[in-house]
Amino acid sequence: MVSFIVNFFASSVFATIALVVDIVIRVLAVIIVPQNRKPQTAMAWLLAIFLIPYIGIVLFLLFGSRKLPQRRREKQVEINSFILETTEGMDRVEKEVDFPGWLEPIVEQNRTLGSMPLVGGNTAKLYTEYSESLAAMTEAVETAKRFVHAEFYILSYDSTTKPFFDALEAAVARGVTVRVLLDHVASIRSPGYLRTIRRLKHIGANWHLMLPIQPWRGRWQRPDLRNHRKLLVIDRTLAFTGSQNMIDRSYNKRGNIRRGLRWKDLMVRFEGPIVAGINALFVTDWYSETDELLMRETDRIPDEKIRDAIDAQVVPSGPGFDLENNLRLFDSLVYSAQRRVIITSPYFVPDDSMLYAITNAAYRGLDVQLFCSAVADQPVVFHAQRSYYEALLRAGVRIWLYKSPTVLHAKHFTIDDEVAVIGSSNMDMRSFSLNYEISVMLHGRHIVSQLREVEESYREQCTELLLDDWLTRPLRSKVLDNTARLTAAVQ
Predict the structure, then answer these.
(1) What distance in Å separates the CA atoms of residue 104 and residue 101, rounded to the nearest whole number?
(2) Which helix or strand (DSSP H or E) is residue 4 part of?
(3) Which of 22, 24, 79, 208 could share a disulfide with 284, CB 3.0–4.6 Å?
(4) 391: alpha, beta or left, given left = phi > 0 and alpha = psi -120 to 50?
(5) How many CA atoms lie within 13 A of 408 on its CB side?
(6) What are the phi and psi torsion angles at 241 (to 5°)?
(7) Measuring CA to CA, which residue among 257, 264, 273, 226 is closest to residue 458?
(8) CB 105 within 8 A of CB 112
(9) Taking Cα atoms as reference points, which of 412, 443, 436 lies closest to residue 242?
(10) In this predicted model, what pLDDT tens digit does every residue of 24-81 receive, in sequence order?
């Protein structure tokens, strides 16, 4: 009898303590979680903590803060002074000729948030075929005389990328400085990571992991804060950037190969003053990972007149910046559009501001179109994306689905016939807040005309999604879509 009373008392005390702890956790969550977070993000985290308290808390501690370590943030501030000096070509912007009045405030906004200027006198060449862009980047490395700066979210040595790695090796052999950056988590998750590292060591390239997760070496931050940029700079004379990783089109994953998935990307080759801006981003990331601040090149840009020259502005974004530079750029451009907005994004999970900007453009009577894939490699993101289709279709947005098994991975959009954006950034909350991205805003009817041809080539391979057909999709699909949408804001 005594033991029963003791056990009952002990269990009652334990239950009381557990209840008090649970209440304290919930109260603290309501106080702490909403601080400096968007309401939708805060609500998603609170929902996770309330429904699965202990697991939710652990996840929040691991993934709840999108701030980088203090030293990394300080480096971003330091490097901005370097970026501000990268201003060659500002005098080549011809604002008197075909320069829309609404664009100038957006240029200033980009300059304020990301430090980069708008520079004129650039040329751009688009590559829409995977093999052609790889061959072009390989050929560019083969011409290098002083340095090669390669930075990719995923860098993998395989049969497809072997010529590129061979070109790097040949460059090192002839005395060219080769610096390589690759995202740690993204690359280690790709087949052949150790083989890639061995190849980089054999080449003799100076390589480093971006945002490494190595707590035993004192390297730690939120695991899903990643560097998603893709860029290549040669001798400060030409640069590539866009959506393509340095890996086979299948990403060498068994599931992709079994399903026959093949990625379709868009890369752009730049020459002109904009190359210095793209290189400044590499210098920024190199400094963050190595503490080595590379000397600024001082070659004078030739004063030659270029036909169909393009104005260009690099817009960097990521957790090193506080104000979601790419989202603000995208929203500003969509609200400024007068006739047409055409978007290509493989992962389209907009926040409320972007959803309102796009649907408002359609309600204003603009021609608004979205290109994305009918198939995807990331089920949760794919279903979250689908949950937005009804609102878009009801607003009058035309949605084009690129036919399976191709994954349309290109990331670009055009505004009217005058402005375009090309880069690594998806239109989703991860790219807005969690990933380091590069976007290049371009002004020039010539480049927009080229992108119109690219959009038309997509359209020929797409099926248009119609509202009546979408509303009749199976109930299980609706449930999956709406459930996945709840996870989109947890960041």
Answers:
(1) 6
(2) helix 2-32
(3) 79
(4) alpha
(5) 25
(6) -155, 165
(7) 264
(8) no
(9) 412
(10) 777 766 776 676 666 667 766 777 777 777 677 766 766 666 666 667 666 777 766 6
pLDDT tens for each residue of 422-443:
999 999 988 998 899 999 999 9
Of the candidates 309, 324, 330, 314, the one whose C-alpha atom is nearest the C-alpha of residue 413 is 330
pTM of the model: 0.88
Of the candidates 191, 101, 106, the one whose C-alpha atom is nearest the C-alpha of residue 155 is: 191
Task: Find, among 251, 62, 241, the residue nearest to 156 by Cα.
Answer: 251
HSE on the CB side for 192, CA within 13 Å?
A: 19
Per-residue pLDDT tens over the stretch 117-131:
999 999 999 999 999
DSSP secondary structure of 342-410: EEE-SSEE--HHHHHHHHHHHHTT-EEEEEEESS-S-HHHHHHHHTTHHHHHHHT-EEEEEPTTEEE--
- Show the tokens assigned to 247: 């890996």
Query: How far is it, in rounded angstroms, from Cα 415 to Cα 332?
Result: 11
- Residue 305 burial class via C-beta count within 10 angstroms: exposed 0-12, middle 13-18, buried 19 and up: exposed
Do you know the residue count of the chain? Answer: 491
Q: Give the HSE-up count for residue 346: Cα atoms under 13 Å, Cβ half-sphere.
A: 23
Measure the CA–CA gap between 156 and 159, rounded to whole angstroms: 10
